[in-house]
UniProtKB/TrEMBL annotation:
GO terms for molecular function: hydrolase activity. It comes from Kribbella antiqua. GO terms for biological process: small molecule metabolic process. Its cofactor is Mg(2+). NCBIfam families: HAD-SF-IA-v1, HAD-SF-IA-v3. Gene3D superfamilies: 1.20.120.1600, HAD superfamily/HAD-like. InterPro entries: HAD-like_hydrolase, HAD-like_sf, HAD-SF_hydro_IA, HAD_sf. It holds the Pfam family Hydrolase. This is Putative hydrolase of the HAD superfamily. The keyword Magnesium applies. Keywords: Hydrolase, Magnesium. SUPFAM superfamilies: HAD-like.
């Protein structure tokens, strides 16, 4: 192997924990009471609207507004009639979310092992370029990453084979000498293998760690 490509959200960056912490601070500020059911509904709404952005149906800001239009009624909060008002409310969530950004404890050690192996290090993520780079900087990993490719910068998203191939090209390494690691079996493993990469599934629920997969 000459390079490793990591997924970002829920692989290096603990997106789920950051969102949960953010919702615990944000929902009460809107007069709502957070429950396990509401948490689950938030993530369902997030996935549905985010995929609409990846498909080109919504803008990135549009999928944020779409999330609020679905979620606010669940906490008995009136849905604003204008985009500007929706954006103001979402900015409140973002403030809480960004304040809770954190890397998984094994993230930096895994990148350091990859670097000690002499490997090029890339990140391939379905997300906005500005926000995903900001996450890497905030959680202290940007200095160890050679290339960051996002669905926005590539104009194609996982699981399209072109996403993996263009990331390998940016790293200057052939797919056959590259390993992909991520938490999503379909997007980070099966599709990467189809594109000609080696790929490992980071199944944290089963106790798998990044260090196990990178060593």
């Amino acid at each position: 192997m000459k390079a490793v490509i990591f997924d970002l959200d829920n692989t290096l960056f603990d997106h789920t924990a950051s969102v949960i912490t953010a919702l615990h601070g944000w929902v009460p500020s809107l007069g709502g009471t957070l429950s396990d059911e509401l948490l689950a509904q938030w993530f369902e709404i997030e996935d549905r609207n985010f995929n609409q952005w990846l498909a080109g149906v919504l803008t990135h800001q549009g999928q944020r507004r779409g999330r609020l239009r679905e979620f606010l009624p669940l906490i008995d909060h009136p849905v604003p009639s204008t985009d500007a008002e929706l954006d103001t409310i979402f900015a409140g969530f973002l403030q809480h979310y960004e304040a809770s950004w954190a890397a998984f404890p094994d993230a930096r050690p895994a990148l350091e092992v990859a670097r000690s192996n002499g490997w090029r290090i890339g990140v391939l993520t379905n997300g906005s370029t500005t926000q995903q780079n900001a996450k890497l900087a905030a959680i202290g990993l940007a200095d160890l990453v050679d290339v960051v490719c996002t669905s926005e910068s590539l104009s194609v998203s996982k699981p399209d084979s072109a996403a993996y191939l263009m990331t390998c090209q940016a790293l200057g390494v052939e797919p056959s000498y590259t390993v992909m690691i991520g938490d999503n079996l379909e997007l980070d493993v099966l599709a990467a293998r189809k594109a000609g990469l080696t790929a490992h599934h980071l199944d944290r629920a089963a106790g798998i760690t990044l260090l196990e997969l990178i060593s």
